[in-house]
Amino acid sequence: MRRKTIVLGITGGIAAYKGAVLCSKLVQAGFDVHVIMTEGACKFITPLTLQTLSRNPVYTDTFDERDPSVVSHIDLADKADLIIVAPATANTIAKLATGIADDMLSTTLLAATCQVVIAPAMNVHMYNHPAVVHNLQVLAERSVMFIEPETGQLACGYVAKGRLAEPETIVAAVNDILAEDANKPLMGKRVLITAGGTVERLDPVRYLTNDSSGKMGFALAEAARDFGAEVTVVAARTSAAPPSGVAIVRAESAQDMLEAVLERFESSDLVVKAAAVADYRPIVRASSKIKKSGDRLMLELEKTTDILQTLGERKTKQFLIGFAAETGNLDHYAMDKLKRKHCDMLAANDVSEEGAGFNRDTNIIRLYDQSGLIEALPMMSKREAARRMLILAAQRMADREDREAGR
Ligand code: PMT
User: Fold this and answer.
1) Ligand 1 lined by 359 (C-beta under 6 Å)
2) Which of 109, 121, 270, 278 has its CA 20 to 30 A from that of 14?
3) Which residues are known to be catalytic?
């Protein structure tokens, strides 16, 4: 397991001394701790104390760039698995709530995409002030987590709520948050999934479609949701019930699906193309019902745009998973599709196999990456297959992020 990186922000309150104890306990717990101190914090405790305890350089000034190859506040924000501000003063809480970035800590917090945890410490009247209450609410709505101050003797003489939670309590909370994170490997990620079979209309009452029920795509959506992702499903014709807690966007034809997917592609981290998309559509779509005439009717079809291939050509940061529905020669066709459509991973199913393919609750999937077969899943529920696929994808996405962040 990779050692987790914690950025510890210490702000200017008397409880700053407890920040040193917290730093020491986090290091003892096995975390790689990087400390940022505000100017106020340095009045209570010295950076040298924190440098000694964390065994890492301490940051106090946004412009004190020591490594020319990185921008420190971005680098710290990128490599942090979690940022904890303890103690957090009313001032730092207000800055974070309003987006002020005027020192190393607030700038790093603004650049952070990981979980932020705030452990406030202040006088009870300050803690209950409507401005502070409002700021805490704003932050809670942005998924910032809090470790409530405790009730006890405050430095100002009051016996009331406002004392920084004990370092042991904070370390336990950090451990819990990161452990939960481990069960939610797609936490904070935006996942876009396509499901179902597209419908290509000949006239107002007739269409070409396929047997896709949407079960595979919905199982993937459910798994991604359970792994902490924000999930959108672009669904064509489906017979299965869509899962709760995911956004469903309806798209009938291959063209509708292309447009709906492209609209959301840029903001997605992971895209899974489980839909069965028509390769051809009628060139003419009659505006009224085609009348019966003669013994033969010729339908002229034209190629649809290959959505997966389009995404593969346009992808920047997105992890792209394609499917291949085959009736034999699985390895050959799977690798051809994976390479041609620039996928990061491809799930192939032989839809002629018993227990696999369309409109069933089970599937038999072989997973490939650019180097070849990575896993052959035996017959299992589509739900379990979806979980196994997404765990692999999440690991690869995390590895890629680590590489890009130089971890
Ligand atoms: O929905 P279920 O009943 O649960 O069935 C599941 C499933 C069999 C539909 C699913 O497991 C599956 O295999 N989905 C892909 C079906 C398919 O269209 O495969 P393909 O080999 O024709 O296409 C390869 C890939 O290109 C697919 O990711 C497909 O979404 C994509 N494609 C194809 C054509 C096109 N015009 N645009 C595309 O994006």
Assistant:
1) yes
2) 109
3) 156
